[in-house]
Amino acid sequence: MASSCFADHLGDFVALTPTERDAIHRLEERERILRRTGILVRENDRAGELFILKRGMMMSYVLLDDGSRQILRFLFPGDMMGVASIAYALSPETIVALTDCTVCPFECGALAQLMTEHPRLGAAIMVLHQMERVSLTDRLVGLGRTSAKVRVASLLLELRNRMRRFDPEIGSSFVLGLTQEEIGDATGLTAVHVNRMLRQLEDDGLIGRENGRVLFRDEVRLARAANYVDRFEGLDLSWLPAAR
Hints:
Elements: H1 5-11, H2 18-25, E1 32-34, E2 39-41, E3 49-55, E4 58-63, E5 69-75, E6 80-81, E7 94-97, E8 101-107, H3 108-117, H4 119-145, H5 148-166, E9 173-175, H6 180-187, H7 191-203, E10 207-210, E11 213-216, H8 219-226
Antiparallel strand pairs: 1-8, 2-7, 3-6, 3-8, 4-5, 4-7, 9-11, 10-11
Helix pairs in contact: 3-4, 5-6, 5-7, 5-8, 6-7
């Protein structure tokens, strides 16, 4: 059976058939290497392709009128990127590599064919992006209605949980791989404020930091303090159509 990182990602939520896995694998036949800081898609450039992230970590962001940056999503292996191409002629976001990455580009027509031949996969992909939309809604609520410490704590939990989905060996300790500026651009804070909030979380006994690693010392209290909800749990997919 062909290996597919996107099929593995979907397979966390839906039991895929061999035929479905092979169909998804065809989206990943081409590969493109992108070095760290390389831009895959630039905001307001013509959108034409979608991508699956096969290796590495990326992020998407928009630039505001004052030149500041708002990070929208952090992207991990198995994520589908550039999905705005199915609706807009111009990209509404910039997608950039945070590490050396491998991406798999494919045309919108390939996704249309997949959905035509395998409606259940189309429904599952819709579910996946609905989960991401709800996660973004949580981030929006946090930006407008929660404290700086809550925003930082919630982001740490979200990142660790996303990393653990493609690397089950990750436990309470993980390599964050982000600068304080990047954390700030995701949470609406300055790098100085992020540093202060991380120190407060340490002083509260909720996390530890050493050599670029973050350790969750009391994950239950951390999740409670962050008002965190894991949007990749508690799903009801009983309505999905049968596989063809």
